[in-house]
Amino acid sequence: MRYIYILIIISSIEVSSDNYNKIDLSENKRNLSNEIFNKLEKEHYLKKIDKNNFNKKYFDAIIERLDENKNLFIADEVQKFIKESEFYTENDFDIELAYELINLYFQRLVDFSSFQIKLIEENNFDFSKEDYLDIFYEDNQWQSNFDDLKNLWRLETKNDYLVIKLSESSSVEPQNDLIKRYKNRIRRISQQKEEDIFSLAINILTNQFDPHSSYLSPRSAEDFDLNMSLKLSGIGALLGVEDDYTKIINLVPGGPAEKSGKINPEDKITKVRQIGSPNYTDVVGWRIDEVVDLIRGEAGTEVEIEFISFESNSDSTKLVTLKREEIKLEDRAAKSEIVNVNDSRIGIIDLPSFYIDFNEYQKKNKEYRSSSKDVQNILKNFNDSNVDAVILDLRNNGGGALIEANKIIGLFVSSGPTVQVKQSRGFIQPYGSSRAIQIWDKPLLVLVNRYSASASEIVAGAIQDYKRGIVVGQRTFGKGTVQSLEDLSEGQIKITESKYYRVNGMSTQNKGVTPDIELPVTWDIDTVGESSYPTAMSWDVIRPYRHKKFKMDSKIIEEVVAKYELRLDEEPNLNYLKKVRNRYDLNKNKKLLSLNYEERKIQKELRKSWLLEIENNRRVAIGLETFESFEEMEDYNDSENDFSNSIDLESDYQLIESTNIMKDFLEFETSIILTSAKQ
Asked: Whole-model pTM?
């Protein structure tokens, strides 16, 4: 019965000669999938996972992941796969059937793209018609037949075309842009390997246990280590893809590529040769990860790169030989700045992640790089510079090493646990350092947002529980689980093995950390975060751990909050954020998108006029020059958002307001020294 279904389903829609080369499950990957599933069953925090209809739940999740918008499969296909998953009894999950579904997904993407190319080539779109595209996918159903599916594809293609027609940067022939886009999609799909299929299938499986258990392929495991250490060996260039070419996106300051003065952003790589090898490797059309592997190598070795210069009007190429060096990823390292606010000096620390060079740390090399060392040096400089208060910016900090979060808390809190860790068998262990040396004893503000997760939440929660400082921003992500990395026969697996709890006994899982002062944000934070995952583990509470608290006068906090609330109605930057949010709320559940050119053009112009108006109102209120046009405003914003390692104190409204809050705090109590603690 099963294979009859597969033969029916795994066929392409007849729209072109383009076909996806189906990738079969190898015996090696079958064995690896069983190895991973067995580890999850034995070692995951949830020891007793519900196996009732597990395979059906697994396939429900695959279908949701692959076709969330319900624009690739038809209803009969979905039902046949679900039915087949229910009948499968040979194992607890069916990796082979998952392969079949994923293969169908990629074939259908090829069908979709080929269909779009055909429509664009025919160019029979009538943009004066009152066509509408349903964009509120949550209540959509799968189409009942292929004709209805093709009609949906037609509407989506028409919208793609319309978007380009309405773009200020539109080319004379938008058809060419779209055809190139769709052909590139087909080309990328044709480059799929079994590792890609397997990683997709197995990570949807691990996510059935919880959102953070995952499989790391050998390549992913290597990249994970590099990111944690903030260093790699290479030429110091960030690469991207444009058409068939691997393109230079950015150059790392001080890296080999930048120091050569010969290769620049927007240059396109055509060939790569290892010094010592007589042959060049043509990399046009290659996967970007494979090009990266060719270029990356041991420090001190050389690589020759052939490229097309962005300055060239022809396809003539140039050559550059670069000696690989150890590249430090400074854009992810801690940064700092001191600002003067009235008579006070406020130090700002931007910490994008909790990093550590594990290899050097395990070798007991005292010179190993870590976030806590970098923050400690910054705080020492702040003390030497007579800084009055610190803002620790943990926005968009997705976490990292727990040991680093603990050490950074210790720079502000000299004793006591930082977090409680509960193992799967119920054993609870306080985690903290008895040898912490408090470097900073003056006022502290921790700035967080919805993307502050894991270790960031531990830091924010500890600062709150010890009454060591003020937490400002938005409710954090809600990742309160701990993962361990284990080697597999191939790659690694990250398994959730325990849960975090604050010293006050509350879990950060699912609910996150609620700030003392909540700043406005322009979008609905509930659309992301742990609570948005269907398999997220639940929030709970354990017994609080007895801990000392700092002497922070609650009346001062009340006064600071009161001043902020008054400012919320009057301050131009905060008002701007509220207005953008109100407009977002009005449009977030919009169901139908017009495909009429004139109507969309009017809508776009009205939106531009509105954005220009509220931005100019804000600028007038704070004494800045207004913009003459929307385009001038966009150009300015683009220049401000260029790649930079600096802290933005001009257009970062939440950071600006955080300095205002800290200023108020200092004004209410000018002699705050936060070293004395009480029970």
From this structure: 0.82
